[in-house]
Design brief:
Blueprint: H1 4-10, E1 20-22, E2 35-43, E3 61-67, E4 74-76, E5 78-80, H2 82-86, H3 97-113, E6 121-125, H4 131-134, E7 142-147, H5 153-158, E8 163-165, H6 170-180, E9 183-189, H7 198-208, E10 209-220, H8 222-227, E11 240-241, H9 244-253, E12 256-264, E13 270-277, H10 286-297, H11 303-329, E14 334-337, H12 341-350, E15 357-361, E16 379-380, H13 384-388, E17 392-395, H14 401-407, H15 409-413, E18 417-420, E19 426-427
Parallel strand pairs: 6-7, 6-9, 7-8, 9-10, 14-15, 14-17, 15-16, 17-18
Antiparallel strand pairs: 1-5, 2-3, 3-4, 4-11, 10-13, 12-13, 18-19
Helix pairs in contact: 6-7
The protein binds ligand JHZ.
Residues 91, 95-96, 190, 237, 267, 338-342, 362-364, 367, 382, 397, 399-400, 403-404 line the site of ligand JHZ.
């Protein structure tokens, strides 16, 4: 018999039969009536940066968003095959100091609050380049990463992180618990929104989590997305946009309990969830009740809220294009800062290409030398900004505004200006 790790690796080696499928029923409650309220158009998945010679082979997929009135889940209407999006993944967690510090902090807090003993198992789903798990090493725990990106396996390994190349599922959870035992801590940072089958995902959490274990999940919060019009965080990888209400439904289905929740500022406003095997059925802690009230109050369970959001998105597009056209007509040079996935949504949706943004600077070496998906703007290392001194830099990675502005004081001193787009369009 082959060892379990080989069996796991072979699970994602199947041929892709359908590149995209339409999700007809709500991915949480199964209702057949999710209503579409926004179409951002058809574009390549935003982390698939082509080389100049691959431009003719780009695949475009629709980006349409629906709301399920029955359970409150906001979700994509189409699902691109996960192998297309995640098998060769260009985004690395370690690209931002903000993210590194955030995860170091979370590892420290987790180990202390949950009294994680040496040798306990800590599993990170969507472990990427191993940044998060590397911060658990000093607690002498056993760490295991699960991530479908084949290209990042060795990067994580070089940090001493054992890694399984797979999409998380109940099947994987069973294999892992047989080989490594149950996990005291499971984490999924910016991952649950990516899960194609939420039932299978939470069933897997139920299977792998030890009796007194904790599952910690973080992802952008729908309240922030709607209130700050962060429409560019809607993309093919993110299949669900969560509020608390639909989440409780799926947790209850698998006898899991949300015992803690906290709003955190990362990525334009996220939530951190603390989940365990159910002990207090139907007794939500105060912060959970407060968020449910907030969601109700701002209309997250009404279709009209999303129709209004869609109108604001169109308006933001017009306003941004007006500003950029006016700057170009004055002969100003504009570039982009941060070739973020969200940036690619903004560029494709607004139809902004190299005629407007001469280039984009980005810190991830694998993005440099490539062009942006769909819009074909060349990407260079960050140092080009100061060498070239364009008059304006459109901050595409607006979620890291503090970090980026902080390290570009010289550009500002020499007269360079940043254009911010979230929460509103503003020149700094
Ligand atoms: P960043 C990613 O989306 C992918 P993206 C993922 N799907 C997800 O869910 C969200 O995060 C949350 C660059 N940069 O993190 C690096 C600089 O150049 O906003 C990145 O290319 N200089 C998992 O891609 C980009 O900006 C800098 O100083 O939208 C930021 O991408 C910093 C800080 C970043 O996420």
């Amino acid at each position: 018999m082959r060892p379990p790790s080989l069996i796991i690796n072979s699970l994602i080696m199947k041929k892709i039969e359908k590149e995209i499928i339409e999700q007809k029923n709500c991915r949480i409650c199964g209702s057949s009536k999710p209503k579409m309220f926004l179409s951002l158009g058809s574009m390549p998945p935003p982390n698939m940066f082509p080389q100049k010679e691959q431009l003719k082979n780009e695949s475009f997929y629709p980006l349409d968003v629906s709301f399920c009135k029955n359970c409150g889940l906001v979700q994509l209407k189409h699902v691109v095959h996960p192998d297309i999006m995640f098998r060769d993944y260009i985004y690395v967690t370690s690209a931002s100091q903000t993210m590194i510090k955030h995860l170091a902090n979370l590892a420290e807090k987790t180990a202390k609050r949950f009294k994680v003993q040496p040798n306990s198992l800590v599993v990170d789903i969507g472990s990427n380049d191993g940044t998060f798990l590397s911060h658990f090493k000093k607690f002498k725990v056993r760490t295991l990463g699960i991530d479908p990106a084949e290209n990042l396996k060795d990067v994580a390994k070089s940090k001493g992180i054992e890694n399984i190349v797979a999409l998380f599922s109940n099947r994987i959870a069973n294999l892992v618990s047989r080989k490594y035992g149950k996990a005291k801590v499971i984490t999924a940072i910016n991952v649950v929104a990516h899960a194609g089958n939420l039932d299978d995902f939470f069933k897997g959490i139920k299977t792998l989590l030890s009796e007194n274990g904790v599952f910690i999940a973080e992802f952008p919060y729908l309240v922030d997305l709607v209130e700050k019009d962060e429409f560019d965080t809607i993309y093919h990888e993110h299949l669900s946009y969560f509020s608390i209400k639909p989440l409780l439904l799926i947790l209850e289905k698998y006898n899991l309990e949300l015992f803690g929740v906290k709003r955190i500022p990362i990525h334009g406003g996220s939530i951190r969830l603390l989940i365990r095997h159910s002990r207090n059925k139907q007794k939500y802690p105060h912060p959970v009740k407060e968020l449910l009230n907030l969601e109700e109050k701002i209309g997250l369970y009404n279709l009209d809220t999303y129709r209004n959001f869609a109108e604001r998105v169109e308006k933001k597009k017009e306003d941004l294009l007006k500003l950029l056209r006016s700057l170009k007509s004055q002969g100003k040079k504009i570039v982009g800062y941060g070739a973020a996935a969200k940036g690619n949504i903004l560029l494709n949706f607004c139809g902004i290409g190299p005629e407007t943004l001469s280039y984009i600077v980005d810190s991830i070496p694998a993005k440099q030398g490539k062009v942006t998906p769909g819009t074909h703007i060349p990407i260079y290392p960050e140092k080009k900004l100061l060498e070239d001194m364009p008059e304006y830099a459109l901050l595409l990675a607006w979620n890291f505004a503090d970090e980026i502005l902080g390290k570009n004081t010289q550009y500002k001193k020499q007269g360079g200006k940043f254009i911010l787009i979230v929460p509103e369009i503003k020149i700094l």
